[in-house]
Design a protein that fits this description.
Blueprint: E1 2-9, H1 19-32, E2 35-41, E3 46-52, H2 56-62, H3 67-70, E4 74-81
Antiparallel strand pairs: 1-3, 1-4, 2-3
Length: 93
């Protein structure tokens, strides 16, 4: 199942200190096949992380050791199933 995880970052923290560890962590998830793609949402001070997981809860569990979460850089997280219809993540027609 494909899960869209949304991060909302805290506004009073310089994320550049933790970002290298955060990206290394996400790179490990990608290499393991759990993370499909990710990137910042600059206009909303957040990020979108697209995961392969059994459930939204399982996706959040995979992200529990994210340095951004561990270092209190995330104000809120959401996770929900996403069903792509077109594009590289969509099932074959």
């Amino acid at each position: 199942m494909i899960i869209a995880v949304g991060y909302q970052y805290v506004t009073d923290r310089d994320l550049s200190e933790v970002r290298p560890a955060h990206r290394a962590f996400l790179r490990e998830l990608h290499e393991a096949g759990s993370l499909l793609t990710s990137g910042p949402l600059p206009a909303s001070n957040g990020a979108l992380i697209v995961m392969e997981a059994a459930s939204p809860e399982a996706a959040l569990e995979l992200l529990e050791e994210d340095p951004f979460l561990v270092e209190d850089c995330i104000a809120a997280r959401t996770a929900e199933e996403w069903q792509p219809v077109l594009g590289v993540l969509a099932p074959p027609a």
